[in-house]
Amino acid sequence: TPDMTFKFAVVAAAKLPSLKEYTDPKAKPARIHVDEKHTWDVRARVLSAFSKPSPKLEENLNACLRQLNELAALKVEVERLRATPYDDTNKEHEATLDQVWAALEPGRKRTGGRISADWKDIGFTGNDPGTDFRGAGYLSLLSLHHVANVHTQDLRRHVASYKGNELKYWPPATTSINATRWLLEMLERGELDLALHQRGSDMETIHEVHRALLRRFALTWDRAPPPTIMGFGLVQRVMMHETRKMGVSTLMDADDRLEEIQRAALLVQ
């Protein structure tokens, strides 16, 4: 099957060139992009394991190697976005941030404009939210923007729970940024590879994995709420342990089912 051929190709490849090799500015230019020679080497190694490889096997293998190349290219793009710092002089960055606010606080104007204590109401740490994106860069803003604008009602509910309860509830915006860091760690370790193969090696899937991690964190918190925000780290460790145990593909399937249940509940209301 294509899934089995994909797994076999990964094993035969031993590993794709590491993320560092793809993004190292000192690397040869050909390594900055997908290494086509590596792809053909893998293809030859897989086919050599069969005395008479069938046309179907070759077709599946070619499709899987294309997916492996797409995955490698996606990792390059993710790293580029992570390494892009938030820039308050960049109109696109500022517009993306404003759209997060508009989605979570519709119709509300911030007191003071761009630099405002009101940002704390949706879970940023200070008056200038741009400083919170250090570490995960523009990628973390894009993922926050996705969940705020695609899964709006869910994130608004957490914002409402956070307001006035800051010492006992998790901050939505900064937790979303943390979820981007969790995702990056799992991507680097190869823990997202199969889910990306199954759902598509593109930024839309990356943002949906981020959203699933954020929702899993919320469910873990609600299952046994810590007495104060100081329990954040423990909830995170429990959530990540459970996520790794079940696998990201299973996590995404469970998230899809929960999304369907919530949509059905809204229709009944």
Overall description:
- With 269 residues, the chain is mostly helical.
- It is 67% helix and 0% strand.
- The protein contains 13 helices and no strands.
- The chain has helices spanning 2-13, 19-23, 29-32, 36-47, 55-82, 91-104, 137-150, 152-162, 172-188, 193-199, 203-223, 232-246, 248-268.
- The longest helix is centred in the N-terminal third of the chain and has 28 residues, at 55-82.
- The radius of gyration is 21 Å and the shape is globular.
- The model is unreliable at 11-34 (pLDDT under 50).
Gist of the model:
The protein has 269 residues and is an all-alpha fold. It has 13 helices and no strands.
What topology emerges from the helices and strands here?
Blueprint: H1 2-13, H2 19-23, H3 29-32, H4 36-47, H5 55-82, H6 91-104, H7 137-150, H8 152-162, H9 172-188, H10 193-199, H11 203-223, H12 232-246, H13 248-268
Strand content: under 5%
SSE ordering: HHHHHHHHHHHHH
The oligomeric state is single chain
Structural class: mainly alpha
Sequence stretches where pLDDT stays below 50 over 5 or more residues: 11-34
Helix amount: 55-70%
Span between N and C termini? Answer: 43 Å
Number of strands: 0
Largest sheet: none
Global mean pLDDT: 83
Shape: globular
Radius of gyration, rounded? 21 Å
If helices are DSSP runs of H or I spanning 4 or more residues, what is the number of helices?
13
